[in-house]
Amino acid sequence: MTVHVNSPHARDIRSHLHPFTNAAQHADVGPHIFTRGEGIYVFDESGKRYIEGLAGLWCASLGFSEQRLVDAATRQLKTLPFYHNFAHKAVEPALELADYLLGCAPVPMSKVFFTNSGSEANDTVVKLVWYHNNILGRPNKKKIIARRGAYHGITVASGSLTGLAYAQNAFDLPIANILHTDCPHHYRYAEPGESEEEFAAHLAANLEALIEREGPDTVAAFIAEPFLGAGGVIPPPKGYFERIQPLLARYDILFAVDEVISGFFRTGRRFACETYGLKPDLITMAKALSAAYQPIGAVMISEKIFQSILEGSRRYGLFGTGFTYTGHPVPAAVALETQRIYDERDIGVHVRAIIPAFRRRLEDLTDHPLVGEARCAGLIGAVELVADKAAKRNFEQNMRVGAWAMNKAAEHGLIVRALVNDAIALCPPLIITEEQIEDMFDKLKRTLDDAHAKFATS
Ligand SMILES: Cc1ncc(COP(=O)(O)O)c(C=O)c1O
C-alpha cells in the first residue's frame, strides 16, 4: 500500500495504538476510516455504504443519526457541561437516570452506581462483592465464578472474569479469586446424545462440584451474561438458569448478571433478565443504555448490597469508590433521552415484531454447507463456520476463515464480526426494518457462498 507521509493513514499507523487489533499487521493492513453514519448505515472515507450488522460494537441501538440524542447532548453541554457527584453533590441527569432505571428494573433494586464503561461496571461488581463480604465479617468468602467463553470486559478485574484467552495472554490475568466454570454451549460441549436439558443439568452439577471443592464458604458470587456475546453469541441451553439460580441461593452466593449487550431490548424486553427469568443481586449495563452516543455504564444493586455499603460508610467514613466521570451529566442526559425514545417509539414492540424475520433468515443458513450452527437470542445471532458439518470440526485457526468472511462481507457492504471458532455475529441496530433484515442476510448469504467456494474441503 502506498501512503502519503502525512495522510490520515500514515498518521494512524505512526501514532495510534488500536484496541483489539493485530499490531504486527496494522502497518500493512492500515486503518479503515469511517466518516459518517445514517440510520443503520455507516460510510467510509471513500463514500462506500455499509449496513452496520453489529451496531458498531453491539451498542448503536438507535443507529447513527438520531438527532434527538445530538440535541440532548448539546442542551446539556450548553447548560452544565460537567459537574461531579462526589461528596453529596449531584447533577440532575444522573439522579433522574438512576431513578428511571430503578423504575424499570427487572427485579426490585435499591440503587444505581454509574461508570464510564461496561468493564468498569463489572470491575465495580467485583469490588462490591468483596466489600459486602468483608462488611458481613466473611473475609474468606471472596471467590467469583465466571464462565469459560464469557466476555465481561478488559480491565484488570473484568478481564479476569472474561473467559477468553486473548484477554489474558501475557497480561498476567486472571487475578486471584476468579474461577471459571463450563461454557454453556450445547452444540460444542454436550456429550453425544445429550439433550439441552441434560446438558444444563450436567453443567449445574459441575458448578456444584466446583463450589463444594473450593468450599462454599469461599465462594462469593457467580457472574453471567444472559447469553454469551463476544464468546460466540450463545443462548443458554434449556433449563440452564432454572438449575443454576437455586444452587446459588442454596450456597448463599450472589448472582451478578451482565446485561452490557443484552440490556435495552436486544431480546425484545428491556432487560434479558425478564426474557430468561433471572433474579440477580447486581446487574451491569452500558452500550445501549445511551445507544452508544456517549460512554456510560452502570451497576444496579439490591438492598442487601446497599445495606453493606451503609454499614461500611459508618465504619470507614465514606464509600471510597467512584470515577471523576461517575454520573457525568452529558452521557447521563443522553442515556435518559435514549430511554425516552425507547418508550415513545415502543422499541420493544418493534424488536419483538422483527425477531421472527431475523430468526427465520438466520435459521435458513443452517442448510448452508459451511454452517455448523446458526443460533440466536432475540435480535442477535451468529453462524459458526465449520470445515466438517457432521464432525462439527472447525477450520484450522491459522486459515482465519472467520476473518476472511468478515472482510468479504465488507466488500458486499455489510459489517459483521468474526468471533472465536469462526462464528460470524450479527447484532444490528434495533431500528432495523424487515426489508433491511432481508438485505443484510442476502449480503451474508453471498459472503458464505464466497467462503464456501474458497474453503470448501469437499
Ligand atoms: C457482556 C459484556 N460485558 C462487558 C463488556 C465491556 O464493556 P466495555 O467495552 O464498555 O468496557 C462488554 C463489551 O463488549 C460486553 O460485551
Could you explain how this protein is built, in words?
The protein has 458 residues and is an alpha/beta fold. It is built from 16 helices and 15 strands. The strands form three sheets. Strands 4-10-9-8-7-5-6 form a seven-stranded mixed sheet, with helices on both faces. Helix 15 packs across helix 16. The longest helix has 22 residues. The mean pLDDT is 97. Pyridoxal-5'-phosphate binds next to helix 3 and helix 6.
Task: Summarize the entry for a quick read.
The protein has 458 residues and is α/β, with parallel strands linked by helices. It has helices at 8-15, 23-29, 55-58, 67-79, 92-103, 118-135, 156-161, 186-189, 196-214, 240-250, 272-276, 303-316, 329-344, 347-364, 401-411, 434-455, and strands at residues 34-38, 41-44, 49-52, 111-115, 143-147, 178-181, 219-224, 254-258, 282-285, 297-301, 371-376, 381-385, 414-415, 417-419, 423-426.
CA-atom Rg in angstroms: 22 Å
Structural class: alpha/beta
**What's the story with the biggest beta sheet?**
7 strands, mixed
Ligands: pyridoxal-5'-phosphate
Unreliable spans? none
- Compute the separation of the termini in Å: 35 Å
Average pLDDT over all residues = 97
Q: Any idea what the shape is? A: globular
What's the tally of helices? 16
How many runs of DSSP E, i.e. beta strands?
A: 15
Order the strands across the largest sheet as they lie in space. Answer: 4-10-9-8-7-5-6
Q: Specify the helix fraction band.
A: 40-55%
**Share of β-strand residues:** 5-15%
